[in-house]
Amino acid sequence: MSFKDIDNLPMQWSDHEDIAMALYENFGASFNESKIYRVRFTELMEWILALPHFEGKKEDCSEGHLEQIQAKWVYEWRDNNR
């Protein structure tokens, strides 16, 4: 596997940081910190399930995973908007 293929690796619910980075790529700076924290978990789950290379199943999702993903998404936003 070459380095350029790293973005094509499958993601699961436990890949919190990878998912957060993909969400940031999709939504960019249009979702600021307060807006990210106001996203309903049902919406967040659907957005994650629609990500390319996401192979997790809806029934394996948990509130804990969504909380971690949401927090990592905020960190990603902060890192890119300082």
Automatic annotation (TrEMBL):
<protein>
    <submittedName>
        <fullName>Fe-S cluster assembly protein IscX</fullName>
    </submittedName>
</protein>
<dbReference type="GO" id="GO:0016226">
    <property type="term" value="P:iron-sulfur cluster assembly"/>
</dbReference>
<dbReference type="InterPro" id="IPR036762">
    <property type="entry name" value="IscX-like_sf"/>
</dbReference>
<dbReference type="Pfam" id="PF04384">
    <property type="entry name" value="Fe-S_assembly"/>
</dbReference>
<dbReference type="GO" id="GO:0005829">
    <property type="term" value="C:cytosol"/>
</dbReference>
<dbReference type="InterPro" id="IPR007479">
    <property type="entry name" value="ISC_FeS_clus_asmbl_IscsX"/>
</dbReference>
<dbReference type="GO" id="GO:0008198">
    <property type="term" value="F:ferrous iron binding"/>
</dbReference>
